[in-house]
Write a structure and sequence with these properties.
This protein is mainly β. It has no helices and 20 strands.
Length: 263
């Protein structure tokens, strides 16, 4: 059975905001054209199994399950879960990922038969922001711009991102360095002539970055001005590894590109 024939779909939102210790139902459907389905599985961000449903002999081509997740007792906590379908050869589908954002429990309220006040709609927790700062230099001059992520709620095990100069006639990339948290032996940069793009591949092998850290510097990129003008500097995490938390789960982030002015 090829994975292309093996899909898992969820009718649940992939991002849910719930109260602490709340139980969440997740409806999953799997389809296998080879008629070889075995079971559906929910896992936490460490890969540990939370719940599963064995598919019946009558459900070998299409299996449906209502599985359950119990939210963390911690308030203001973000958790990642994944769901996969497994066939009878123990081959797994590509996982789908769900994010559960846990808020404080509601405290029981009004008394004496009075009507209770309505609860305000919770404000969604924004994704971490990966940004490259803006800068300026002169023709023939250089400037170093900082790439950072504003928060890592569940830690950071590594990342793979691309940095691209939109107008390579205005500026070029001349170098990349990494902060000491990312040891050089496990940090790589791939420059493509004429050096308008760089690919960064980094592993936090010694777990220097911890869950909850903020304003984490990812790299320093040096640019040289070639002619007067303004160019945007694109940042992309659309790579094989993306940006991964401590459990090697790809994080959902917001990207803010940089800008370079050459005077």
């Amino acid at each position: 059975m090829e994975f292309d024939d093996f899909t898992v779909k969820s009718e649940e939102d992939l991002i849910r905001e719930v109260r602490s210790e709340e139980e969440i139902d997740v409806l999953l459907r799997a389809n296998d054209e080879d008629e070889n389905l075995s079971h559906l599985v929910l896992r936490d961000r460490h890969g540990d199994e939370i719940d599963r449903l064995e598919c019946l002999d009558s459900e070998l081509s299409q299996c449906e399950a209502l599985l359950k997740i119990t939210a963390s007792e911690r308030a203001d906590w973000t958790e990642e879960f994944s769901a996969v379908a497994v066939d009878r050869r123990q081959e797994e589908s590509v996982p789908i990922f769900m994010t559960i954002i846990t808020k404080k429990k509601r405290v029981g309220g009004g008394g004496g038969g009075g009507s209770s006040s309505s609860q305000p709609t919770p404000t969604p927790v924004p994704f971490p922001v990966v940004s490259l700062e803006k800068g300026q230099t002169s023709v023939g001059g250089t400037v170093e711009l900082t790439l950072k992520i504003d928060k890592v709620p569940n830690g950071l095990s590594g990342y793979e991102v691309k940095i691209s100069v939109a107008d390579p006639t205005v500026a070029t990339i001349t170098g990349v360095t990494f902060p000491p948290e990312f040891h050089e032996d496990y940090s790589h940069k791939l420059l493509s002539p004429p050096f308008s793009e760089v690919q960064l591949i980094v592993v936090d092998i010694f777990q220097e970055i911890q869950p909850g850290d903020t304003n984490v510097v990812l790299a320093f990129i040096t640019f040289e001005g070639l002619k007067q003008g303004v160019t945007s500097i694109a940042v992309s995490d659309d790579t094989d590894k993306g940006i991964q938390d401590e459990s090697a789960t790809i994080m959902r982030v917001t990207i803010t590109s940089g800008e370079l002015t050459v005077q």
